[in-house]
Amino acid sequence: MKIINKLFKITTLLTLLYTLQLNAQDRDLERAGDIVMLLLPASSYAYTHYQDDKDGRIEYYKSFATNAVVTYGLKYSVDAQRPDRSDNHSFPSAHTSLSFQSAAFLHKRYGLEKAILSYIGATFVGYTRVVSEKHYIGDVIAGAVIGSLSSYFFTSKYENIEYSLDLTSNKRKMVISYVW
């Protein structure tokens, strides 16, 4: 279990380092942000399977769906032109809301230690959206708030408590252990 945790962290860190060393051209950064944006929800969701956390998956579905409805509801009801003038769906940033929804889910469900790399990745995604002129800073901040709140509303702290009863050599004892 510890090995998989370490592999998860190393993979996330290597992905982030790879994206940071890409050429600083806008298109390369935009592509890197797109890749990280896809990896964040995939890794958050995969972690619920790794933890065998069925309740966490249900909470993830709820926060994901809420985030999508609110983000796209605003995106198509607010007429906000993108900085590159490609369309009028700038507010809020869906890339950023999805990224922060995933990071905030990990944070609230499993703790900050499990989410810190995801928060770094989500911040990177927001940065790439501004640099590639797809969003204004306000669009990215709104996306981050919407994504984070959608997870905070629907996600509870993961409580992995194992109970065991040990009856040995005329001693009766109950052992309660907490597994992190």
Descriptive account of the structure:
By secondary structure, the protein is mostly helical. The chain has one domain. 68% of the residues lie in helices and 9% in strands. It has six helices and two strands, in the order ααααααββ. The protein has helices at residues 2-20, 26-50, 54-77, 94-110, 112-131, 137-154, and strands spanning 161-168, 171-178. The protein has a two-stranded antiparallel sheet with strand order 1-2. Strand 1 and strand 2 form a beta hairpin. Helix 4 (94-110) runs antiparallel to helix 5. The longest helix is centred in the first third of the chain and has 25 residues, at 26-50. The N and C termini lie close together (11 Å). The relative contact order is 0.15. The mean pLDDT is 85.
Termini separation: 11 Å
Rg value:
20 Å
Q: Estimate what percentage of residues fall within beta strands.
A: 5-15%
Q: Outline the biggest β-sheet.
A: 2 strands, antiparallel
Q: Could you give the order of strands across the largest sheet?
A: 1-2
Figure out the total of helices.
Answer: 6
Low-confidence stretches: none
Mean pLDDT: 85
Judged by helices, strands and strand pairing, the structural class is: mainly alpha
How many domains, as an integer?
1
Tell me which oligomeric state these chains represent: single chain
> What letter string, H or E per element, gives the SSE order?
HHHHHHEE
- What's the total count of β strands? 2
Helix percentage: 55-70%
Shape label: globular
